[in-house]
Design goal:
Nucleotidyltransferase, domain 5; seven-stranded mixed beta sheet; six-stranded mixed beta sheet; alpha/beta; globular
Length: 401
């Protein structure tokens, strides 16, 4: 069974075609700094590879959808209902569902919701101190980036040969952290919505809700106006004054003397360090810290800054390991009590496994219908090797493996 796995982030679109259950990658591609997801989806090329199903990494469907489901009207309605809680994500996936239905009619779609990995968070870490009626409406901690944190938990266990008390740091355009004990999520920084937790590129992170109420009453803003401001102009962009809040742009601005950009990076690093300490307390110890995501995997400076000052927990980086090398690797010193790793994540693989299990449970013995999806134009792939991790393919270009 060939699965097309599109991973639609807030600023990027990555995709893989995996043959299941062998998990062989038939092709992969990526598009960066995406503004129009309908156009980006239209540019995906399968290169003539037949597709039996599309598996999406869906974000927020509320309390009824914290697992893996066939996409039907119920899934679409749940995504719409919780659109106000995840405006930067659910809108993308609603667009994707419509676009794939038009491009590949008859091909089943599966939605693997991000909170699935976090269903093991204990109730005392999941509940908010809100009126009881709010709980009945689904207001609680869900957690997101579940596929990434699950993959990192499995990858660290494979590299170290055992399950450990781990803090997974998924740091990118969208960032979150997860406390993982025995391979299970026990806490995470994102809560009811992907806006909470760490500052993201344009999303505000943790914020006293009464600050938003104060600004609404002071300026006469509607809920939609406040939502738009906090989701598109907050976070690192709001702190730094750098449009888009991309850490690469912040580092460049800080190098040119921007104090606001430098302060935004300091705020981000502080929140990461504070969360590592808090999660160590929640787990009763700390044995490993893993950095992943576009920032976590590739920014030696950020890893250094996030680990600096954590020596009391047993965290010590090796400068040469941290600043050189590529691929999945240990970057901590030999005498560090806590193992620190820089890893590439693979959310698509986790989504594929979940989708394959779902489809296998309901499939009939005959071979499913397969369609090929070709873009309007099909340029030959131009592979760009950045020297860190696997090769990437820019724009709509496709890499066959």
């Amino acid at each position: 069974m060939n699965l097309l796995i599109p991973n639609l982030g807030t600023t990027s679109l990555k995709y893989q075609i995996l043959e299941m259950p062998s998990e062989k990658v038939l092709a992969r591609g990526r598009q960066e700094r995406v503004a129009n997801y309908r156009d980006a989806i239209a540019r995906i090329s399968t290169g003539g590879t037949p597709i039996h199903a599309v598996a999406l990494k869906a974000v927020h469907g509320g309390p009824k959808y914290r697992g893996t489901f066939l996409v039907d009207d119920g899934v679409v309605e749940a995504l719409r209902q919780f659109l106000p809680a995840a405006p930067a994500h659910n809108a993308i996936y609603l667009t994707a569902i419509e676009a794939f239905r038009q491009a590949m009619p008859g091909v089943p779609m599966v939605a693997a919701f991000e909170p699935e990995f976090h269903t093991t968070i204990p109730e005392h870490a999941r509940l908010y101190g809100v009126p009881g009626a709010w709980l009945e409406d689904g207001v609680a901690k869900y957690g997101f980036h579940g596929a990434s944190h699950q993959y990192i938990a499995e990858r660290v266990a494979a590299m170290l040969g055992r399950q450990v008390k781990l803090v997974s740091c998924h740091l990118g355009g969208s960032s979150s952290m997860c406390a993982i004990d025995g391979g299970r999520s026990v806490d995470t920084t994102m809560g009811f919505s992907p806006q909470s937790g760490l500052e993201n590129s344009t999303r505000h992170g943790d914020l006293d809700v009464f600050a938003a109420l104060y600004m609404m009453e002071r300026h006469g803003w509607s809920a939609q106006e406040v939502r738009n401001q906090l989701a598109s102009g907050g976070g690192l962009a709001g702190l730094s004054g750098v449009e888009g809040g991309d850490v690469r742009d912040l580092e460049a601005a800080a190098a040119q003397g921007s104090r606001r950009a430098e302060m935004a990076l300091e705020v981000f690093v502080y929140e990461v360090k504070k969360s590592i300490g808090a999660f160590a307390a929640a787990m009763g110890g700390l044995e490993a810290v893993a950095f992943t995501g576009g920032i976590g995997e590739n920014s030696a400076r950020l890893r250094r800054d996030c680990c600096q000052g954590l020596e009391f927990l047993g965290v010590r980086l090796d400068r040469a390991r941290n600043e050189t090398g590529s691929g999945d690797r240990v970057v901590s010193a030999e005498d560090s009590r806590v193992t620190v790793l820089a890893l590439a994540t693979n959310e698509e693989l986790i989504v594929a496994r979940r989708a394959f299990r779902k489809l296998s449970a309901i499939s009939t013995p005959h071979t499913p219908t397969a369609l090929c999806m070709e873009p309007l134009t099909a340029p030959r792939p131009r592979v760009k090797n950045k020297g860190t991790g696997p090769q990437s393919v820019e724009s709509s270009q496709l890499e066959h493996t």
